[in-house]
Amino acid sequence: LTEALIHGGLANRVKVNINWLDAELFEHPDAEIAACLEPCHGILVPGGFGERGREGKIASVLFAREREIPFFGICLGMQMACIEAARNTAGLAGAGSSEFGDTQEPVVGLTTEWMSEEGLQRRAADGDMGGTMRLGAYPAHLAGNSVVHSIYGADRISERHRHRYEVNIHYKDRLEAGGLMFTGMSPDGELPEIVERPDHPWFVGVQFHPELKSKPFDPHPLFASFIEAAVKQSRLV
Q: Which of 78, 180, 187, 192 can pair with 167 through a Cys bridge, CB separation 3.0 to 4.6 Å?
C-alpha cells in the first residue's frame, strides 16, 4: 500500500492498492486478461526497454481503452498506446516499433535528431546507447482544449526525458483519425510528447518521465489526476 494525495490535499488522502502484473501473463493464448484487469480501477503501463512483454502491454492498453478504465502510459507505455491505436483504430495491422526489429509500419522509431535549448542535436543510429538518448528536461506545448492542459493549467511545460525511441510524427494524422489525439508537442512540432483520448474517461500517454518530478507529499499533477480518475472509477463498479 502507498498513499496518494489528490491535488495535494491532505483532506483527500486515499489508500492506493498497487497490483504489479507481469505483462507476459497476457501473451499466452489462454490468458485471462479480464480476470486480472477487471478488478483494477486504473491501469498504468510504465517506461522500460526491450521487447519482453510488449504484446502483453499492448493488450493492457486495449483492455483499458475498450473497458473505459483510466489509463496512464509513461514513455514506453505511451508508445504501446500508439501502437495499439495504430493496429486497432487506424487500420495499420502491421504497426510496431523499430526497437523490436523490422516492422511494416514503424509507428515508433529511433531518435536521431531533435531540438534542444542548445539547438539541433544529432546522433548516429549506430552510436552507443547513452549517446543516442534524448536525456534531460525539454519543453512542450499543450493543446488548449486538452485534458493535460486542464491538469497543468499552462500552455507550456518542461519535463524530463530518458529514451531513445519516439512516436513517428508521420503517423499523427492516421492516429488522430482513430481518436488518439496528440495534445502535447515539442516546440518545433516534430516530437509527440503527450497523447490522449477525448472520448475516454481518462486516457493519457506521455513520452517523458513525470515520476522524476514527483514527491510523496507533493505528487506530480498527472499522478494526482490519474489517482483521482481511479477513485471515480472505483465508485462506478
A: 192
pLDDT tens, position by position, 136-155: 999 999 999 999 999 999 99
- Would you call 159 a catalytic residue per the annotation? no
Q: Quote the CA–CA distance of 143 and 140 in Å, as a whole number.
A: 10
Rounded CA Rg of the chain: 17
| Alpha-carbon gap, residue 215 to 31, rounded angstroms | 36
The model carries a pTM of 0.87
Catalytic residue among 41, 161, 200, 209: 209
Catalytic, 40? Answer no
Output DSSP code: residue 141. E
Q: Is 200 annotated in the active site?
A: no
pLDDT in tens, 170-221: 999 999 999 999 999 999 998 999 999 999 999 999 999 999 999 988 999 9
- What cell does 8 get? 495535494
Alpha-carbon distance 100 to 103, whole Å?
8
Out of 24, 27, 68, 211, which one is annotated catalytic? 211
Look at residues 214, 200, 208, 206 and name the one whose alpha carbon lies nearest to residue 69.
200
Question: Which of these is catalytic: 40, 75, 105, 200?
Answer: 75
